[in-house]
C-alpha cells in the first residue's frame, strides 16, 4: 500500500470527498491541522480508532484528542464549566485542547478516551474543521507519526514515515503553528497546564486573568500519558543548552546567535534568525528531522528563551533529549 497524496489547495473538493470515503469506511486519514499533521479517524468507531493505534504503534493506554467542528458540536461530547467555555470562545478554532468531563452516551468510543471519564477536545482551524463538519462526527487524531518519533509538520514528513501504512494523506502545506496544541484542564476554578503548546500560558492568563498552574514534575505524565519522557525523539542524540559545538555535531540555534565553534558544526539550522518564537515553533520539528538526516553524530541545541511559545519549544526539546527507553 502506498498512500495517495491529495493537495487540498489544488483540489479541495476531491480532497474532501476522498477523506470522507476513507473515514466512512473506518480507516484513518492523515490530515493537516494548524499545529501538526494528524492521523484522523472516526472517534465513535472502535475499529477505526484501533487502526490509529496500530498505524502509530502506540501503546493502548494513551487517550486521543477528539476534534470537533465548532463549540456547539463540542458541547454534545464534553461538559463545559464557565471557565472552560470562556477558553473555548477565546481560542477556538485554534491550538488549545480542553480536558472535560465526558457527556454520558455521547457516542465517543472508550478506545478514544482510554476508558477515562474525561475527553480531550479541540476545534482545529481551516480544512480540518470543514472535514469534521461534513463528516458529522468527531475525529480522534494524534499526530501522524510512528509513536515516539518527531511529529510531522508537512505531508512529506507523513509520507516518509507512514506512507506505506496509509491509503490517504491530505497535503495542506507546512503546518503554521508547528507544535501540538496546549492542553489544559479546569478544576475548582483553576487552570492546570498539562502540556505546553501552540497557545502560550501568558495568552491564557491574559484572557482569563487567572494564573495557569504548571505541573510539578513527573506526576503530569499520569494525567496526560502521551507525555512520556522520551517522546519526539530523532535518531541522533540531542544535547541541550549547548554553548560550544563539538566536531561532528549539527547545531540548532535561535535568533542568529551561534554557539562558540559553530564553524566546525556538521550543519547549522537557525529556528528563527529574527528571534521570533512563533517562527521557531513552526520550524522546530522540520529542523530536528533535517538535522537528524545530515548524518551528524549528535544534535546540539543552543538555549531558547523560555517565555511564550518558548515553553512549548523547550518542552519538546527536553523530550527529544530525554534518555531513550
Ligand atoms: O495539536 C495537537 O493536539 C495534535 C493535532 C493533530 O491536533 N494532536 C495531538 O494528539 O497532539 P496526541 O494524541 O498526540 O496527544 C494527545 C495528548 C496526550 O498527551 C494525551 O495523553 C492527552 O492529550 N489526552 C487526551 N485525552 C486526555 C484525557 N481525557 N485526559 C488527559 N489527557 C488526555
Ligand atoms: Mg504525538
TrEMBL record:
It is found in: Cytoplasm. InterPro entries: DHBP_synth_RibB-like_a/b_dom, Sua5-like_dom, Sua5/YwlC_C, Sua5_C, T(6)A37_SUA5, TC-AMP_synthase_SUA5. GO terms for molecular function: ATP binding; double-stranded RNA binding; L-threonylcarbamoyladenylate synthase; tRNA binding. One of its GO terms (biological process) is regulation of translational fidelity. GO terms for cellular component: cytoplasm. It catalyses: L-threonine + hydrogencarbonate + ATP = L-threonylcarbamoyladenylate + diphosphate + H2O. ATP binds at residues 58, 62, 118, 143, 151, 195, 232. Keywords: ATP-binding, Cytoplasm, Nucleotide-binding, Nucleotidyltransferase, Transferase, tRNA processing. Residues 13-199 form the YrdC-like domain. It holds the Pfam family Sua5_yciO_yrdC. Its main location: cytoplasm. Its EC number is 2.7.7.87. PROSITE patterns: YRDC (PS51163). Transmembrane segments: none annotated. L-threonine binds at residues 35, 67, 122, 141, 181. PANTHER family: SUA5, THREONYLCARBAMOYL-AMP SYNTHASE. Required for the formation of a threonylcarbamoyl group on adenosine at position 37 (t(6)A37) in tRNAs that read codons beginning with adenine. Belongs to the SUA5 family. This is Threonylcarbamoyl-AMP synthase. It comes from Neorhizobium lilium.
Amino acid at each position: 500500500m502506498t498512500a495517495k497524496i491529495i493537495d487540498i489547495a489544488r483540489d479541495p473538493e476531491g480532497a474532501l470527498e476522498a477523506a470522507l470515503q476513507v473515514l466512512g469506511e473506518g480507516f484513518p486519514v492523515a490530515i493537516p491541522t494548524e499545529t501538526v499533521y494528524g492521523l484522523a479517524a472516526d472517534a465513535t468507531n472502535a475499529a477505526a480508532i484501533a487502526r490509529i493505534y496500530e498505524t502509530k504503534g502506540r501503546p493502548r493506554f494513551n487517550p486521543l484528542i477528539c476534534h470537533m467542528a465548532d463549540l456547539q458540536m463540542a458541547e454534545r461530547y464534553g461538559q463545559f464549566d464557565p471557565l472552560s467555555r470562556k477558553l473555548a470562545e477565546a481560542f477556538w478554532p485554534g491550538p488549545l485542547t480542553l480536558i472535560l468531563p465526558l457527556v454520558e452516551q455521547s457516542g465517543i468510543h472508550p478506545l478514544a478516551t482510554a476508558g477515562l471519564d474525561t475527553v480531550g477536545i479541540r476545534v482545529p482551524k481551516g480544512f480540518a474543521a470543514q472535514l469534521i463538519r461534513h463528516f458529522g462526527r468527531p475525529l480522534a487524531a494524534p499526530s501522524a507519526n510512528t509513536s515516539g518519533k518527531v511529529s510531522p509538520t508537512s505531508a512529506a514528513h507523513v509520507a516518509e514515515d507512514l506512507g506505506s501504512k496509509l491509503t490517504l494523506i491530505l497535503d495542506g502545506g507546512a503546518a503554521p503553528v508547528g507544535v501540538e496544541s496546549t492542553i489544559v484542564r479546569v478544576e475548582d476554578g483553576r487552570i492546570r497546564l498539562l502540556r505546553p503548546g501552540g497557545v502560550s500560558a501568558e495568552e491564557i492568563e491574559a484572557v482569563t486573568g487567572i494564573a495557569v498552574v504548571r505541573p510539578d514534575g513527573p506526576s503530569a505524565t499520569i494525567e496526560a500519558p502521551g507525555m512520556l519522557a522520551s517522546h519526539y525523539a530523532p535518531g541522533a542524540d540531542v544535547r541541550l543548552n549547548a554553548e560550544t559545538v563539538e566536531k561532528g555535531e549539527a547545531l540548532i540555534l535561535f535568533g542568529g546567535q551561534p554557539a562558540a565553534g559553530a564553524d566546525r558544526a556538521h550543519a547549522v539550522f537557525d529556528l528563527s534568525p529574527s528571534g521570533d518564537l512563533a517562527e521557531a515553533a513552526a520550524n522546530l520539528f522540520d529542523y530536528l528531522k533535517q538535522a537528524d538526516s545530515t548524518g551528524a553524530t549528535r544534535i546540539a541545541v543552543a538555549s531558547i528563551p523560555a517565555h511564550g511559545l518558548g515553553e512549548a519549544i523547550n518542552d519538546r526539546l527536553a523530550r527529544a533529549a530525554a534518555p531513550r527507553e
